[in-house]
Amino acid sequence: MSGVIRITDVSPRDGLQAESVVVDATKKAELVRRVEASGVDEVEVSSFVSPKWVPQLGDAAEVFDLIAPTKRDGVCYSALVPNVRGLEGAIVVNRDAREKHGVERLIDKVAVFTAASEGFSLKNTNATIEETLERFAPIIPEAHAQGLMVRGYISCIVKCPFDGDIPSSQVADVASRLLELGVDEIDLGDTIGAGTPDSIEQVLLDVIERLDGRALNDFGDPTLTLHLHDTFGNAGACIERALEVGVRSFDGSAGGLGGCPYASTDTKRAPGNVATLDVLDVVGNAGLTTKVNREEMVQASIYAGGLIG
């Protein structure tokens, strides 16, 4: 099995989405450039979601326009699309990038999102799990027709702030439905950071069984990605266990920015994403490698932290 680990940095989207500070488009674009310069495989740039619900990301089209002239070969840009209208926004951005900047495909991947918890799904998407899956049905084939990869996020893979503990079989069932719909990648999110190495391993084993041996998708990337929050300081140990199980793709956030705003409670803000630097350290300690230049990621992380004070 490959010793090179795939790294996606989610700080420009999932990171800034959860921060109360509103960052202007030029600074977001600079964050993307700095993260990209570190050599990560993918940058999750923004989300085509209603500004009414996520005002921090209402400038997605502007950010993409700013970074179009400097996109590096080999890096994947991705964006969250909650519905058909969101996908249409991504398609327009790609069309404009071709016409204005000569970039054949600016956005390479779109992501849809659901949950393993009915309570969280209703809070986060105003829909049941089944209703979110129905929303995806027209998105995925159209994205593929546009040459775009599709990631399927599953939130609350261990525990939900509303429903409590989530059975790993329930996570696997949702993963199966996403695979049936045609997603290219399953991204498992421990949204509130409740996972331990043992609980994460059980989820991974159950989901891997549903992958039916597909270590790579049709685009040559790992089919399974793990997205952790470091609420109780367990993320590093969870990554170690995931590497032992065979996971070869991880999300991280420069500077540990963000977390899901809907996972917050009345008295406690949502915990942050695991820092990309921490992911790199665990991977290195395990004797594996990434394409990321650590010093460049240090500088990107310093910049990211400066954006929110």
Give the tags:
TIM Barrel; 8-stranded parallel β-sheet
Structural class: alpha/beta
CATH architecture: Alpha-Beta Barrel
Run of helices and strands: EHHEHEHEHHEEEHEHEHEHH
Helix content: 40-55%
CATH topology tier name: TIM Barrel
Distance between the termini: 41 Å
Sheet with the most strands: spatial strand order? 9-8-5-4-3-2-1-10
Number of DSSP helices? 11
Could you describe the largest sheet, including whether it forms a barrel? Answer: 8 strands, parallel
Shape label = globular
**Rg over C-alpha atoms, rounded to the nearest angstrom:** 18 Å
Mean pLDDT: 93
What does this structure look like?
The structure is a single chain. With 309 residues, the protein is an alpha/beta fold. The chain has one domain: Aldolase class I (TIM Barrel, Alpha-Beta Barrel). 44% of the residues lie in helices and 16% in strands. It has an eight-stranded parallel beta sheet. Strand 3, helix 4 and strand 4 form a beta-alpha-beta unit. The longest helix is centred in the N-terminal third of the chain and has 18 residues. The model has no long low-confidence stretch (mean pLDDT 93).
